[in-house]
Specification:
2 domains, rod-shaped
Amino acid sequence: MTTTAINTIEDLVRIMDNHPEWVEAMRVRLLSREVLELPQTMARLTETVDSFAASTNKRLDAVEVR
């Protein structure tokens, strides 16, 4: 196992660039579960808003026809 010294933030960035597989491990340790789940939460929110907008538009179209 190779030892790598990290003395500056630039060292850390360089190491992360050289070892992209370490990025996920760092992400899991640095970010809360809620932050890690944001992409899935936003996807569900987008689906809900899209569905709501579609049903609202359908009802408005029906009102305009009257």
